[in-house]
Automatic annotation (TrEMBL):
InterPro entries: Bestrophin, Bestrophin-like. Keywords: Cell membrane, Chloride, Chloride channel, Ion channel, Ion transport, Membrane, Transmembrane, Transmembrane helix, Transport. This is Bestrophin homolog. It is a multi-pass membrane protein. One of its GO terms (cellular component) is chloride channel complex. Coiled coil: none annotated. Residues 470-487 have a biased composition (Polar residues). The chain crosses the membrane at residues 31-54, 75-94, 235-257, 269-287. It holds the Pfam family Bestrophin.
């Protein structure tokens, strides 16, 4: 039922959109002709009564009412209220279409990761895709009147081949008042787990990929139910509808052509047909009809989604991918350009005019940098900014590169020394050494390194403990020296 005219506007030329105005299906004329006919008949009826049925004194009263309606009907913010509402509805309409799940991706995952050419492997792959399509049909039947008319009961699903009689009994036996679209998806997870145990899915990552894609399909089905559950707020729809209809009800009086002899402003000429009022009715009322048609795209309007066609297409394509085309591909042969690196596909006479001879390589590709400005600047010649001109958030002067490098080297030496001290403590320290004495040893290490100015690990250890590195021991004298140095 979707109206497609993409091919007719593929190339823009004079009269492209004019041809679209002649189409009837899905057109504004088809949506509006009843309301427009009622409006025109009501307008001319009032005009006839004013011109031929009212006496002169009543005509004057009618004219004052007409001027009053024309003066105040422009206070209705038609463009703002209606435009914002239609924008919300169109955005929602497209998001609903993007929420429709397509099983192609899942079918590709199934045929790539569930192996086996026997009947068992074939049965697993086909059953997984059938359950996914069944879940989609159960969801579509809950939100689409067209699908509901096609499959009004569960017996119709069984007769159509989407489920077996045993599966129908199990689904009917699930005790819940909510939609049961999730039941076939639960069965699918069990089949995937069984295929993994049987070795048909060769690794856990492949199984994880299948389950993640299955969860994505479930999320999209849940999203469709959410769109069907949560609508645009009713009060907004009511406000927009009241604004449009009251505006044109006031136009029936306010847009009447009055007697030019009375000298009213903007009534110097007497017309019979309100051309611009009719155009305004088509624009505004057509805008409202667009929102009315797109508010629920799962109905039976001309622009509603083709859900029944989508059901047939999904099941057929899914079976083709996982069964007929499983592990099948043409023979591997060398392509036509096997020995060529620079080639171009041929053009025929009809497409030669579209051949690009000067391909786009980037907007900055033709920029030329002068030779004197293209040489790299040596890093040593870059002057450092004055310390007083730069400050950190704590107002601390920024360190130069050399100072930061020295500090980093010092921290690395201290880290290596701490590791070395830990090994010495583990090998030689007496069991009675307290934690305070161990802390004194590590504090002494930093003082000794700074005092001795050494960098080698053995030299650092010798600066603290003295003696041969292989014969170092911790004695009470060493601990006493550390404590005195700390003090």
């Amino acid at each position: 039922m979707t109206v497609t005219y993409t091919a007719e506007v593929a190339t823009s030329h004079f009269g492209t959109f004019w041809r679209l105005l002649l189409r009837w299906k899905g057109s504004v004329y088809k949506l509006l002709w009843v309301e427009l006919l009622i409006f025109v008949v009501a307008y001319f009826t009032i005009s006839f009564i004013y011109r031929f049925a009212l006496p002169e004194n009543h005509k004057r009263t009618f004219e004052r009412i007409s001027i009053y309606c024309e003066l105040y009907n422009n206070l209705i913010p038609m463009a703002f209220v209606l435009g914002f509402y239609v924008s919300i509805v169109v955005t929602r309409w497209w998001e609903e279409f993007m929420s429709i799940p397509w099983p192609d991706k899942m079918a590709l995952y199934v045929t790539a990761n569930i192996h086996g050419h026997d009947d068992r492997g074939r049965l697993i792959r086909r059953t997984i895709m059938r359950y996914i399509c069944l879940s989609f049909v159960m969801t579509a039947r809950a939100i689409s009147t067209a699908v509901k008319k096609r499959f009004p009961t569960d017996d119709h699903l069984t007769e159509a081949g989407l489920q077996t009689e045993n599966e129908q009994k199990i689904i009917e036996g699930v005790k819940t008042n909510n939609s049961k679209y999730f039941v076939p998806l639960v069965w699918t997870t069990s089949i995937i787990s069984r295929a993994r145990k049987e070795g048909r899915i060769r690794d856990d990552f492949a199984m994880k990929t299948l389950v993640e894609e299955l969860n994505f399909v479930r999320g999209q089905l849940g999203g469709l139910l959410n769109y069907d559950w949560i609508n645009v707020p009713l009060i907004y729809t009511q406000v927009v509808t009241m604004a449009v209809y009251t505006f044109f009800l006031s136009c029936l009086m306010g847009r009447q052509f009055l007697d030019p002899q009375q000298g009213y402003d903007n009534h110097q000429i007497d017309f019979y047909i309100p051309i611009f009022t009719i155009l305004q009715f088509i624009f505004y009322m057509g805008w409202l009809k667009v929102a009315e048609s797109l508010l629920n795209p799962f109905g039976e309007d001309d622009d509603d989604f083709e859900m029944n066609w989508l059901i047939d297409r999904n099941l057929q394509v899914a079976y083709l991918i996982v069964d007929e085309m499983h592990s099948e591909h043409p023979d591997l042969i060398k392509d036509q350009f096997w020995d060529e690196a620079d080639f171009t596909l041929p053009y025929n006479a009809a497409s030669e005019q579209f051949k690009v001879t000067d391909p786009h390589v980037g907007s900055a590709a033709d920029i030329e940098v002068p030779e004197h400005a293209s040489e790299f600047v040596p890093l040593a010649s870059i002057p450092e900014e004055p310390v007083h001109a730069i400050s950190t958030p704590q107002d601390v002067p920024r360190e130069s590169t050399a100072v930061r490098f020295n500090n980093l080297s010092s921290r690395k030496r201290r880290h290596r020394l701490n590791l070395k001290n830990s090994e010495i403590l583990d090998r030689h320290s007496p069991r009675s050494m307290t934690s305070q004495q161990e802390e004194d040893i590590f504090m002494m290490s930093d003082l000794s390194v700074e005092k001795a100015g050494v960098v080698d690990q053995d030299q650092e250890a010798e600066a603290i403990f003295g003696g041969n590195p292989s014969e170092r021991t911790l004695t009470s004298d060493s601990v006493q020296n550390v404590s005195e140095c700390k003090t």
